[in-house]
Amino acid sequence: MCRGRGQGFWTAFLAYTLILCIGTARAQDTGSGTDEDEYRVQPVVVTGTRVERSPDEEVIATYRIEREEMEFAGTRSVGDMLRWVPGIDISGGATFGASKRSTALLYGLPAQYSLILIDGQRTKSDHIHTGVNLEILPLSMIERIEVIRGPGTALYGSDALGGIVNIITKSAPKEPTLDVMATYGSEETLELNAFHGMSWERFGYVIVLNDETSDGPGTGNQYDKSSVFLKLYGEPAEGLTTRASVRYYEGDYATSTDDLAQYQVEAVLKEILPGRLKGSMAYTDYNRIFRSGSAITDNDMIESVLQYDRHLGERHYLVVGGEWRHERFERLGVLKKKEDIGSMYLQDEIRILDPLHLLLGLRMDHQEEIGAEISPRGALHLGQDLYDVRLSVAQGLRCPSLQDRYEYRFDHGTFWRDGNPDLDSERSLHYSLEGELRIPETPVAVRAMAFRNDLDDVIALRDTGILESDGDPVLTRVNLTKAHTQGFEVGMHTYEPTECGLGGRLSYGFLDAEDETTGQRLAYDPKHTFKAGIFFNRGRFSSSLMGEAALDRKYRDKNDRVRGLDDYYVLDLNVAYEISEWLKVSLSVKNLLDEEFETYEEGTAASSYGRFVAVSLNGRFK
After folding, report:
1. CA 613/CA 601 separation, integer angstroms
2. CA distances from 551 to 508, 511, 526, 592 (A)
3. What DSSP line would sit under 382-423, residue for residue?
4. What pLDDT does residue 574 have?
5. Tens-digit pLDDT profile for residues 92-128
6. What is the pLDDT at residue 457?
7. What are phi and psi of 558, to 5 degrees?
8. How far apart (Å, rounded) are the C-alpha atoms in residues 547 and 502?
9. Distance (Å, rounded) from C-alpha 289 to C-alpha 255?
10. Distance between CA 136 and CA 124 in Å, rounded?
C-alpha cells in the first residue's frame, strides 16, 4: 500500500512538471499582471543578529519565506507554509484540538525547543510544554517568515535550543490599500480576510481582520475563530521611530473557548546617538476555558528588551542588550505560579576581510530558582558573488518551565504526570556547516548542509512506582537523558524565476535522532524526508505544486517503547488567475492524494485528515 502511494506521489509530481514545461514553451504573455507590489520592500533579515541587513550579508544562515511564496502555494496557515521548509516537521501537537493545531519541530527536536516570535518578540498559546500553536496566526497579517535552524539562545535565551521562527507582520503600504479575500472549501469551511493600510508623511497604519468557521473533519472538530490585528507607525521626531500593535484572537471549539490578547510597543532612536538605541515591551495573555468547567489555562507574559548597537571603527559592529521577562501560568494540575527572568547579551560582528566575517556572542540568563546560565555562540561567513559558506558553533538552552517544575497529578488518560522543582536546565552543543553555490548565468543554486546537536540533561518522564486510585501509574519529570540529533541536507532551488516564469526547489534530508542512554530513537523523527516545489507565474496565470515524502518514521512513547508510523506522501496544488488588476480567483487542493496520517508529540495525533479543496476570491483596491 505504501509503495502505491509513493508511485502516485512521484507520478503526479512529474506529470505536473511536464505539463508546465510544455505550456511555458507555448505561452504568450497575455496580461500585464501586477506591475509592482505596492507594499513590497527590499529583502532584509533581522532574526539571526537582531539587526536589519541584506540576506547576503547575514552571518547566521536564515531561511526566508516571502509573502509571494505563500500566495503562490495557496497556503492556508503558518503550519502549512513551514511544512515545506527543509529541516522542519509539522505536528498536530497535543491530541486535543488537533484539527486546528500545528506546531513546528526542528531537526528532530520536540516543538517546545522551537522559539516562536512575532516581530522579534515572544508569543504564547495554550500549552507551554508542546510548543506554540501556529494555527492562531492568520496569514493575512504576515509579510514574511524567517527561520533559524539551530540554537538562537545567545541572543534570545531559553526555548531557542532547536531554532527560531520569526513571523514578520505586514508594513503600511505607500498608497491606501484594501485587500479582501473570501475562501470556501471542504467541511463547510468559510474564511474571510480583510487588510487595509496606508501611510502619509511620518505616520502609517495596518489593520487586518480574519474570521474562519468550519464543521471540521469527522465529529467534534468544529470551530469558529476570529482575530483582529492593528499596527501603528510613527516618526514623531527626527531620528525617532515608533511602532505599536494590538492582536486579539478568539477561538470557539467543540470542547473549549480560547482567547488571546497581545500588545507590543517599540521605539528606535538613531542619528542623535553614534549608533541605534532600541526599546520594546510586549504583554501576552492567553486563556482557555473548557466547556465542562473542569479546567482552565491562563498563560501570561510581560517581556521588555533594551538594545544598543553601533559600528566600532571599520571592522566591528557591536550589539549589547538586556531583557526582563515575567511569566505566570495556571492550568489543571498547576496552581498559579510565576517567575522573573533577567538577561544580558553581547555580540560582536568582526569583518576580518571583505568576504570573511566572524560573529561572537554571549548571553547570561538568570532565573530565580535555577540561577545563572551562560550561552556562547560563534559563527563564520565567507561570502562571494557565486557562493556562501557558513559555519556555526553554539550552545542551546531550555530552562524547565513552570509546568515542568510544579505540575501535580495531571491526568493524562493512561498515566498521571508530576513536575519536579529540582530539574536542571536542558543544554545542547550545536555544530553546523552550510554552503550554497549559485551556478553562473542561471537562476539556479545548489545547497548542502550538515549538522549535529549534542544534548545533555534532557527532561524525560519516568515511572515513580506509585499507582493512583484508578490503577494508572504516576510519572514524574527528571533530567536523565543524553541525546543527539545529526544529519545532512542537499538540495537546489531557483532564487528568481526563469525567463519562462518557472521556479522551483528540491531537497533531501537525513535525520538521526537518538537517546544515548537507551540507544533508541529520540521522541519523533522521520529518517528520510524529500521536499519539492514547482512554481509557475506568467502573465495573469500562476500555479504551484508542492510535495513532501516522509519515510521511516519512528517515535518513542511515554512507556519507552519504540513504535512506527506509516510513511506519508503529501501533494498540494494551487492554481490562480488574475481576472483584472484588482480581482483574482484561485483553486487550492491540499493533500491531493487524500492521505490520512499521524505524527507524535504527547501522543499520536492526526496531522492530516485527507483532501481539502477550497476556492478563493481575492480583491485588491487602491
Report:
1. 27
2. 11, 11, 6, 18
3. EE-SSEEEEEEEEEEEEPPPHHHHH--SEE-SSSEEE--TTP
4. 94
5. 654 444 446 788 888 878 888 999 999 999 988 876 6
6. 93
7. -70, -15
8. 16
9. 9
10. 10
Cell matching residue 605? 495525533
In Å, how far from its chain's centre is CA 314? 35
Buried b (16+ CB within 10 A) or exposed e, 358-389: bbebbbebebeebeebebebbbbbebeeeebb
Q: According to the 3-state scheme, what is the secondary structure of 44-82?
A: CECCCCCCCECHHHCCCCCEEEEHHHHHHHCCCCHHHHH
Give kind and range of the element (H or E) at residue 463: strand 444-467
pLDDT 10s digits, 352-385 = 988 899 999 999 999 888 889 999 999 999 999 8
What pLDDT, on a 0 to 100 scale, did the predictor assign at position 613? 94
Burial class (CB in 10 A: 0-12, 13-18, 19+), 499: exposed
- The C-alpha atoms of residue 137 and residue 226 are separated, in whole angstroms, by 10
HEC string of 167-210 equals EEECCCCCCCEEEEEEEEECCCEEEEEEEEEEEECCEEEEEEEE
Contacts of 442 (CB under 8 A, 6+ apart): none
Grid cell 507607525 is found at 233
pLDDT band at 601 (very low <50, low <70, confident <90, very high): low
**pLDDT for 414:** 80
159-173, 401-415, 578-592: least confidently modelled range = 401-415
Local structure of residue 425 (DSSP, 8 states): P
The C-alpha cell at 569 is 506522501
Q: Give me the numbers of helices (H) and strands (E) for the chain, helices first please.
A: 5, 35
Residue 469: helix, strand or coil by DSSP? coil
Biggest distance spanned by C-alpha atoms of the chain:
74
- N residues, the chain: 622
Q: What is the pLDDT of residue 374?
A: 95
Minimal CA–CA distance to 560: which of 473, 449, 486, 440? 473
pTM of the model: 0.90
SS3 of 522, please?
Answer: coil
Reported confidence tier of residue 210, pLDDT bands at 50, 70, 90: very high
- Catalogue all structural domains in the chain, each as residue range(s) with its CATH number: 2-588+601-621 (2.40.170.20)
**Adjacent-strand bridge partners of 9:** none
The helix (run of H) or strand (run of E) holding residue 359 is: strand 356-367
Contacts of 15 (CB under 8 A, 6+ apart): none
Q: pLDDT digits over 431-447, tens only?
A: 999 999 999 988 899 99
Report helix, strand or coil for 560: coil
Residue 279: count of CB within 10 angstroms of its CB: 15
Strands 163-169 and 114-118: parallel
The string of pLDDT tens digits covering residues 518-536 is 787 777 778 999 999 998 8
Task: Retrieve residue 134's grid coordinates.
Answer: 501556529
What 3-state DSSP class applies to 153? helix
Give the Cα separation of 164 and 430 in Å (integer): 14
- Cβ atoms of 86 and 108 within 8 Å: the answer is no
pLDDT of residue 607: 65
